[in-house]
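Feature request disguised as a bug: please show the residue count (327) next to Reticulocalbin-3 in the output. Example input:
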Amino acid sequence: MMAYKCFLPVLLIVPYVIHCTSAAVHSHNIETAERESDGSYRARDFDHYNDAGHNLEFDHEAILGSVKEAEEYDKLSPEESKRRLGLLLPKMDLNGDQFIDRKELKKWILNSFVKLSREESEERMSEADENRDGSVSWIEYLQDTFGVDQEADVGPDDTGDTGLLLRVEKMMWSLADKNGDNVLNVEEFEVFSNPEEHEIMQPILVNQTLYERDRNGDGVLDFSEYVGDRGSLQDKQWLISEKDKFEHELDFNQDGVLDLDEVRRWIIPDNDEIAEEEVDHLFASADDDHDDLLSFHEILTHHHVFVGSEATDYGNDLLGERFDDEL
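Example output, currently without the count:
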C-alpha cells in the first residue's frame, strides 16, 4: 500500500461544466472540469449513461483511443467505417484465434485510455508551448493559463488547469519534472495535466481532499466530514443515500471512517474497473451466441457499437434537433 504524507495547501473544487457539442464533435475535451461536486475526480465513463440515455461516444473512444479519430469515423460511410474496424481486429486478437476474449478486449481498452490521456495532454500542451520547442516552461504555463508573467500576479484564489491553487500546482509541476530541467516535455506534461491517472501524483490529490475536509484533524474522514457543506443543501433522502454509499461502498474496513487509502479509492477513478464494465457492456451488445467470445463477424455485425459512422452521427443530429425543438 502506498504511504501518503500530508500536504497543507487547500484544493478548490472546479464547478461542473456542461458543454454542448455539434455533429461529429465528441464532448470529451480538455475544457471539461476534472472534479465532481463531491470532490471525486471525474471518471472517463462519467457520461457513458446520462439523462439522454446511452452515449455511444464513450464506446467509440474506448475502442479507437482517440477523440479525433472517433470524430473522423463519424464522417465515414458505414461501409468504410466497418472496413477500418476490420483492420483493427487482428491487432486486438493477441492469440490469433479470430476471436476477441474478455482479457484481450480489456487490455485494448486500457491502452486506449492511455492514448486518450496522451491526446488530451498534447492538445493542451500545444496551446501552452508558445515558442514551439516541444516543451512547456513554468512561465509559458503562467502566461497561457493566467495571462501573467510572474506568480505574484496570480490571484490568491485563482486555480489552474488541474483545479488547484497555484502553489499546489507548482509542487506538482516540480514532481512531474523528472529530469529537473525546469520545463515539461510531453510525457511530463501529461503527468502534470492528468494527475489523477498517475500514481506519483495521487498522494497530493488525496491529501488535499483530506486537508479540506478533515475538520477535527484526526487524519480520517467521518460521515459528516465526507458530506461536508453539501449536506445543508440536500434533503433527508439524499443524506440517507449518501450514508448508504459511505457505509457500503467507500468504508471498506467498516470502521466508520475513511482512511487515506479509502479516500484514494473514493476520489481517484479506477480505470481497471471502468474497463471491466465497458467489456461487460460490449459483450452484452455483440456476443450474439453467448459463448463469452466476440468473433470478428459479431463485432463487424455490430460495428456501430464499436465505432461511429455518418449513419450513427446522423442519428445524433436528429436527437440534437429534437432537443433543440424542445428548448
